[in-house]
Specification:
3 helices, 90 residues, EC 5.4.99.5, mainly alpha, flat, CM_dom_sf, Chorismate Mutase Domain, subunit A
């Protein structure tokens, strides 16, 4: 493959990631609404720990598990921020 061909594939994957990130955020907002109705906290450290463990167990590489955790920490942090904004009506 040429550099240009590889970059085209990266661009395709970036668009797919964008779609997935937004779909995940939408689902997080739905969970946020349910949590609000039930009076539950937005932050669920046990759930986050399970996500990190599951992603590390499923990780085929080449990213190491530390990188996987950092990436998912960021995704989850942004979902949590969005939940807080939306559930407070800001």
């Amino acid at each position: 493959m040429t550099i240009d061909e590889i970059r085209v594939r990266i661009d395709e994957l970036d668009r797919l990631l964008l779609k997935i990130f937004n779909e995940r955020a939408d689902l997080a907002l739905q969970i946020g609404e349910i949590k609000k109705e039930l009076g539950l906290a937005v932050y669920d450290p046990a759930r986050e720990k399970r996500i990190f463990e599951a992603m590390q167990a499923a990780n085929p590489g080449p990213l190491d598990n530390g990188a996987i955790v950092r990436m998912f920490e960021r995704v989850i942090d942004e979902s949590r921020r969005l939940e807080r904004i939306r559930t407070k009506g800001l």
